[in-house]
Amino acid sequence: MQQTSDGGGPISTETRINDRIRVPEVRLVGPNGEQVGIVRIEDALRLAVEADLDLVEVAPQARPPVCKLMDYGKFKYESDQKARESRRNQHLTVIKEQKLRPKIDPHDYETKKGHVSRFLKAGNKVKVTIMFRGREQSRPELGFRLLQRLAEDVTELGYVESSPKQDGRNMIMVLAPHKQVKPTKGKPAGDDVPAEEE
After folding, report:
1. pTM of whole model > 0.70?
2. Which domain holds residue 42?
């Protein structure tokens, strides 16, 4: 199964360990990261056996290759766990979008806030966009105040990852969920309905 030829580069990306390392000498690193120096492969393998560890090639391109004494099974398990966690986080990072007008009536605001809260509870980021039309563009503070109010209203569920920024006719803010948000059951959406901004 192993088809490495002497003098050729590594054919597969699989990490070579112990007697699969076919070179005359290696630069050896101890189990705690200490530099041992350049040693013959036979000596490196003997040290690995004596320490009940594996000899693992960590930098095959180096001359001579760098090898480290370690518990390869544990190392591979931890690497796989990190890779799996990283993939899971990538899949979970979803950005939802909510669009609001700077002059929004209280009922619409509560509805939009409910959507934002639901997205944050589900672990999603939310891009909140205020859309200005006509003369509203001369009153950016309306959009800024609305975004601030929304951020304060959902502060238990998320935080402002990207502060309000003007982007052409729009103002954009990104909210991100707190780590491990626990959904709140049966909590009212908020007793005080904010008055419409002028």
Report:
1. no
2. 18-71
